[in-house]
Amino acid sequence: MGLNWAEHTVEIAAPIETCFAAITDYETFPSWQSAVVDTEVLDWDRKGRGKRVRLVVDAKVRKVDYVLDYRYDEPRRIEWDFVEGNGINDADGHYLFDDLGDRTRATYKFGLEVGIPLPGPVARRAHKSTLKSSVEDLKREAERRAAGERPAAERAAPRSTSTAAEWMPAAQSNNSIREAAGEVVSSVANLGGVIGSKTVGRPARRAIDLATDVAGSVTSRAARVLGRGSRR
User: What is the pTM of this model?
Assistant: First the structure.
């Protein structure tokens, strides 16, 4: 069957470094890449960049998921090797960034071989539309970041969630982060006991639910920080 190729180029009103940082911020993709349903960074390189990443994508005709192994020529080029997929048999391509000073020309070329029976024209239209949307989404996100706005994932999070991580300065050791996460888990356990009481009213339950959500976010962020630190 072979790879079905598509390509799209845009000019972005943002420096090349901002564009590169956005398109390699895989964990935030679901908040600003319209076709991406979920992502998971399975492995990191020595510079803390995602090396092996699983992506779940709404490819118009159906959802597919696949794992790519990335390599970088920062900040100008990103390439990948196909590892495995569900609904996809193969994938190849690259992202190219041309430095235009305070602007960047971004070109996304992606070859895809689907593993499901689809008429050729349907597969090509869906692939081309998804790829174009991806580049246009990058343009919007990079320009927002260049304008001084926070990344989309942080803007979408509740204030209590986004500021929870700020309680812990970047210079703290992994041990401090682990201790903070442990305290959060303990607090959640205590809240669980209160929830079980019949004397708790509806307002109190809502407050407890909110606190539980914040606790989960802090614990999750701490785990990611610890995981990255152990890989470097």
Answer: 0.65
